[in-house]
Amino acid sequence: MTPHQRRSGNQYMHRKTQNYRDAIRAKLDAYHRFIQLGLIAQGILVALATTVPGLVWRHFGSWLRTVRPEACPSERVVAAALRNNLPEFLALDTEEAIHAKFIRERSDPTRAAATRLAA
Predict the structure, then answer these.
(1) Which DSSP state fits 91?
(2) Which residues of 65-98 are buried (b: 16+ CB within 10 A; e: fewer)?
(3) Which domain holds residue 37?
(4) Is there a domain that residue 68 lies in?
(5) What is the mean pLDDT of the chain?
(6) Verdict on whether the full-model pTM lies above 0.90
(7) If phi over 0 gives left and psi between -120 and 50 gives alpha, with beta otherwise, what is residue 113?
(8) Which of 3-17, 60-74, 75-89, 100-114 is the least confident region?
(9) What is the total count of domains within the chain?
(10) In a 3-state reduction of DSSP, which class is residue 60?
(11) What confidence tens digit (pLDDT) does each residue in 57-94 have?
(12) Cα gap 118→107, rounded to integer Å
C-alpha cells in the first residue's frame, strides 16, 4: 500500500490501478478472516469452559491464587489446560485420534515445542 500520514483521510481508490485495489481487498479479507478465526477460537474456549469445567480444572496444571472448582474457568485457564494437554494428545497413536494424526502430519517438528515434548 502507498504510505500515508496518520489521519490523512481516505484513499482515492478509483485513481489507483486494478492490481492495487485487488491487493487492498485481499488485505481487508485477511483482516476479516483473522478476526473471525479469533472469535471462533474464543467461542470454543467459552464452550469448553461452560460445558466441561471439571475436566478443564483437572488439566489446568498451573497455579492460581484462588481456584474455585465450582465456578466456570476463564478462557485463559481453558487455553492453558489445552496447551498443557497438547503433547499428551499428540502422542496418542490410536485409530480414534484422527485429529492428532492430522496435526502431526501438518506440523513442523522443528518449530513446535509441544511435539518435541511428546517425543
Answers:
(1) H
(2) eeeeeeebbeeebbbbbbeebbbeebeeeeeeee
(3) 13-118
(4) yes
(5) 82
(6) no
(7) alpha
(8) 100-114
(9) 1
(10) coil
(11) 888 877 777 777 777 898 999 999 988 887 777 777 77
(12) 13
